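Late entry, evening session. Most of the bench is empty. Finally got around to the prediction I had been postponing all week. Sequence below, unchanged from the version circulated by S.P.
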Amino acid sequence: MSTIGFLHTADVHVATFDRLVAERAPELTTVHEVRTDLLDAARRHGLADASIGTGIAHSIDALERGGADVIICTCSTISGLAERASAPLRPAVLRIDRPMAAGAVREGRRIAVVAAVESTVEPTVSLLHEEAASAGVDVAIDSLPCFGAWPMFENGDLDGYHRFIAAHVDGIDESYDIVVLAQATMAPAAALVAEPTRVRSSPVTAVEIALEHVR
């Protein structure tokens, strides 16, 4: 039986990703590592903080010992570092937002990036530019942050968090073809916006790519 491992920086992701896997492949098992300290360190000190790389390595080791055949890092702030930590003879470590970014640059030429924490902005924008270059397309990418939502998340008000984000997205100019929700925690807001067809989030596409690795 195959196992998908998850490296999270928030506890709320455990139930979300267990559900997504169970809906698509009930025969699979999951294993999780939750490291809230890694996002905290990135926000305080930046991604160059050595403790982040060390923490990612320890988490990958733990997930591998737990039987993971493939690993998804669900935090967009640190997922680039996690992806680069993947080694040829170990389980692949997937960046949660890469499939979303690849789809976004295929589908639109003017892209708005909405993030609720500042540390996620640069990694997401850089990833979109990387995917656009790989696809050979020209895109215009603007960061339209929604930092005011994050205190609601930190206080456990997920409904308020998602509604705040949805209201922010509804205020984004219609000239943007695609609105990218940079963090996995933001995904439920897509169902609350007036024009959900232009909104992209990361959890579902990441799980689907992971399933391709284990089937």
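Two things to note before I forget:
The domain at 98-201 is CATH 3.40.50.1860 (Rossmann fold).
The CA atoms of residues 179 and 199 lie 5 Å apart.
Will write this up properly tomorrow.
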